[in-house]
Design brief:
- The chain is an alpha/beta fold and 380 residues long.
- It has a domain at 29-213: Alpha-Beta Barrel (TIM Barrel), CATH 3.20.20.
- It has 13 helices and 13 strands.
- Helix 5 packs parallel to helix 8 (187-208).
């Protein structure tokens, strides 16, 4: 009887979580490619036309740090995101909005940053006692400090505890876990930071409850390390940010990303798949090209990342495609493939080596991850 009672309680708990997910998840459809947006607008809040476009084209969006903070602006990131979330909800009450919050780096665009900067004991230090600074300017959170984590989680709670924000996008966990930190922090502190991240995710879930979502960044495979579905229990959604770009462009790393994406989807999690057009905002030569040229390059190169997305996508998977994190870096570009009928998948992918195929009601997908990176989406 004791075992049966435990099993019964477990089923009730799992059922409660799944019911909560169904309640808070965005509406999903296979009718066309499920697209999401992830960006910040540099200078101003969304225009009426931009807001109407977003609300009509997607059921999910993440607003980045420094959203709408132009020169001399009086708003902060918290206020800007909540403002534009409210605008989108008026147009489409069903849209889900995520609030960007970094798990490691103190960005000075937040009102919350003032409190952090008044507490030097919260600043992460190297093994030699000097500050651990990124890009010569960004302080880091010492997540081993219980009070720091309490402050961090309270910032999340405060900014999503309203009718306009549906969850938090947690960034930079992979930076905390990166092995290269051992050199600066020392092995003991590095291990403590990793444990603190795990605790932070649990504390965040406990604080915000099950009716708000946690999206974390996320799945990432490199030749040296694979970060997979570490937080399936604590989170609702995961992002694959570097597929086919940066250090995640080998056949092996891309295949690993697709495996992890498939796994997360089967666990009923939202998966955000970030596709790149063959260049990023860090590529100076490409960024110097006229906007129309960048658009044409992106249009010509969309098939490979989109095919990869369709190969592994399960229900609640979304595709985002641009060359950076600002709205003017392709954040609101729209491609012909997005308007083609897709239909439900007729099964999971088949795989032979690095060659994948999958069938949908209105599309057939072929993907070869080998160095040729061949792909074909046949629409019908």
């Amino acid at each position: 009887m004791k075992i049966n009672l435990i099993s019964f309680c477990f089923c009730i708990a799992v059922g409660g979580v799944l019911n909560a997910q169904k309640k808070v998840y965005p509406k999903f459809s296979w009718e066309k490619v499920p697209v999401t947006f992830h960006f910040r607008k540099v200078d101003t809040l969304l225009t009426k036309q931009e807001a109407e476009f977003i609300a009509a084209k997607t059921s999910l969006i993440t607003f980045e740090k420094a959203h709408a903070l132009g020169k001399g602006g009086k708003l902060n990131t918290e206020e800007s995101i909540i403002h534009d979330a409210r605008v989108l909800k008026r147009i489409n009450p069903e849209i889900k909005v995520f609030f960007y919050w970094n798990a490691l780096l103190d960005y000075p665009f937040y009102k919350a940053s003032y409190e952090f900067n008044s507490k030097p004991n919260w600043w992460l230090k190297k093994e030699d006692g000097t500050l651990d600074i990124k890009s010569n300017s960004l302080k880091k959170y010492d997540l081993t400090d219980v009070k720091l984590r309490e402050w961090w989680v309270n910032v999340v709670k405060k900014n999503i505890d309203n009718d306009f924000i549906d969850g938090v996008f947690i960034d930079a966990l992979n930076q905390v876990k990166a092995d290269f930190n051992i050199k600066s922090l020392g092995e003991e502190k590095f291990n403590e930071m990793n444990s603190a991240v795990d605790q932070l995710m649990k504390e965040t879930r406990e604080k915000i409850g099950v009716n708000k979502m946690i999206l974390w960044n996320g799945i990432r495979s490199t030749p040296h390390k694979t970060v997979g579905n570490d937080y399936l229990n604590e989170t609702d959604a995961v992002m694959i940010e570097h597929f086919g770009a940066f250090h995640s462009a080998t056949p092996e790393t891309m295949a690993s990303d697709l495996d992890k994406m498939h796994e997360a989807g089967k666990a009923k999690k939202i998966v955000i798949f970030k596709g790149w057009p063959g260049f990023t905002w860090l590529d100076k030569e490409d960024m110097a090209l006229p906007l129309e040229t960048k658009r044409q390059i992106a249009k010509s190169n969309i098939e490979f990342p989109l095919a990869a997305f369709l190969i592994a996508a399960q229900e609640h998977a979304y595709f985002v495609y641009n060359w950076g994190y600002r709205m003017d870096f392709g954040g609101l570009e729209w491609y012909p493939e997005y308007d083609k009928p897709l239909g439900k998948p007729l099964g999971d992918f088949t795989k032979k080596g690095f060659i994948y195929t999958r069938e949908f009601e209105h599309a057939s997908v072929y993907l070869d991850l080998k160095e040729t990176q061949k792909s074909k989406i046949s629409w019908y």
